[in-house]
Design goal:
With 125 residues, this protein is α/β, with parallel strands linked by helices. It is built from three helices and eight strands, in the order H-E-H-E-E-E-E-H-E-E-E.
Length: 125
Amino acid sequence: MLALMSNPHHHHGIDYIEISVTDIEAAKAFYGGAFGWSFNDYAPGYCGFVDHSRGDVEAGGFARVEEVTGGGPLIVLYSVALEASLAAVQSNGGVVTKDIFEFPGGRRFELTDPFGNRLAVWTPG
């Protein structure tokens, strides 16, 4: 039972997100600059990322592809300073597609990263 309690993985929880990009170094520059993530290089076409909200556990990875296609789930990140997060996204090459708006439970904005992947950033209240 102790082994299960110390396991950072949660049964049926989202464990890892893989984001398609056309340039690993550009992805590292954007996500590192905008969100403060760090990276673990594994191969020329793949690196893991640590978002530090879960300690030093990898949250996902970047997989190099020839072309990024739209669609799929919307990745939503949490922020304690929404306006600062928006500014960091813009100053690191992200495009804000929906400016900050209110919704039941908080405020958020939506963006595309330099490769066309859609994300959102939210804060409560």
